[in-house]
Amino acid sequence: KKILSTPMYDKRMELARRAFIFSTLTGLAYVDIMLLHPHHIGTNADGRRYIRINRKKTKIEAFIPLHPIAERILSLYNTTDDEHPVFPLPNRDALWFEIHELGVIIGKEDNLSYHQSRHSFGTFLISSDIPIESIAKMMGHSNIRTTQGYARITDDKISRDMDKLMERRKIQSIGEKTDNNK
Predict the structure, then answer these.
(1) Where in the chain are the domains?
(2) In what order do the strands lie in the sheet with 61-65?
(3) CATH T-level fold of 11-151
(4) What is the pLDDT of residues 96-109, one digit of tens each?
(5) How many whole angstroms separate alpha carbon 102 and alpha carbon 145?
(6) How far is CA 128 from CA 27, 59, 118, 156, 161, in A?
C-alpha cells in the first residue's frame, strides 16, 4: 500500500515504481514486462481489458484481466506502437537498483523484487477467493503445484474460510430444525 501512495519525483524511479506496481497487479515477471507490447493487450466483449502473453520462462500463456490501477498505469505508456514495448524500462541491473532504492525510500526492510511482486499477486488472489485454477492461468503456470508455491494462504484467509464454514453449518442446522418441526 505504501508503494501506491508514494510517488517518486525522479522520472526513472517513478517508472520503476509504476512497473513494480503493475507487476504486483498482474503477476508478470520482469522479463515478461520487458517483452510486453501493445498487441498483448486486448478488450473482451464486455469491455474488460486484459493481457494475453506467453511467459518467457514457461512458454505457457498467461491470461490476466486488468485491475483498474494496472489499466491507469498502462494508459501512461505505449499502448499503440507495436514496434516498441509498453514500458521503456532500463536494463535489468539498473531497474533492480531502482527497485531496491524504492524499497529503502518506503521503509521496506527486505529488498523489493519482481519475484516478490509475483508472490504478492498470487497471495492477493487466493485471499480474494479466486480459484487456484484461475490463478494458475493468470500466472502462466501449467501445474497448480507451482501456483500453490506463489499463492500463500494468510491467517486472515483461514479465519474467513472458517467463518464461512460456520455460517454454512448454522444455516444447515436452522434448516434441519425447520424440517424437524414439520
Answers:
(1) 11-151, 154-182
(2) 41-43, 49-54, 61-65
(3) hpI Integrase; Chain A (1.10.443)
(4) 999 999 989 988 87
(5) 32
(6) 15, 27, 15, 11, 11
